[in-house]
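Researcher: I'd like a structural prediction for the single chain below. Treat it as a standalone chain; there are no partners to consider.
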Amino acid sequence: MTPFEGEPGPRDDEDYTSGEIRTTGFYGYGCYEVEMKPVKQDGVVTAFFTSFAGPYDTPDGGNGQHNEIDAEFLGKNTTSFQTNYWTNDDNYQNGHEHTVNLEFDASEDFHLYGFKWTSDEIEWFV
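Model: Treating it as a single chain, here is the predicted structure.
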C-alpha cells in the first residue's frame, strides 16, 4: 500500500503501524459489511468507517460537509463498540453515539459487522 498524495508515508521511528483503505468513488444507500477482529489495546481504535465526505470531498450534487457512518471499538474494551453518524456537521457537534454491549470479547475472533443505510434510518448488525 502506498500513501495517498499529500499524506506522509511510513516512519521508521514509530513503534506502531496503521492502515486505511479509501475509495475515490462516492456511494449512497445500501448495505455495508466488514469482517474484522479488533485490537485489544489501550489507546487503539479499530473502526469500520464509511460514507464520509468532508470539505475536500465534494461529489456531484454534494455540499462537501462532514458526513460519516461508523462503528468503532474504543481502546482496551473489546466487549462493546460504539456506533455513530454525523450529517452536514463540520464542527462535530451533532454526533449520535450509541454503545453496543456484546456478549463476547470481539478480539478473540473475526466477526461480521455491518449496517444498512436507507433514506429513513441506519441499522447496525453483528
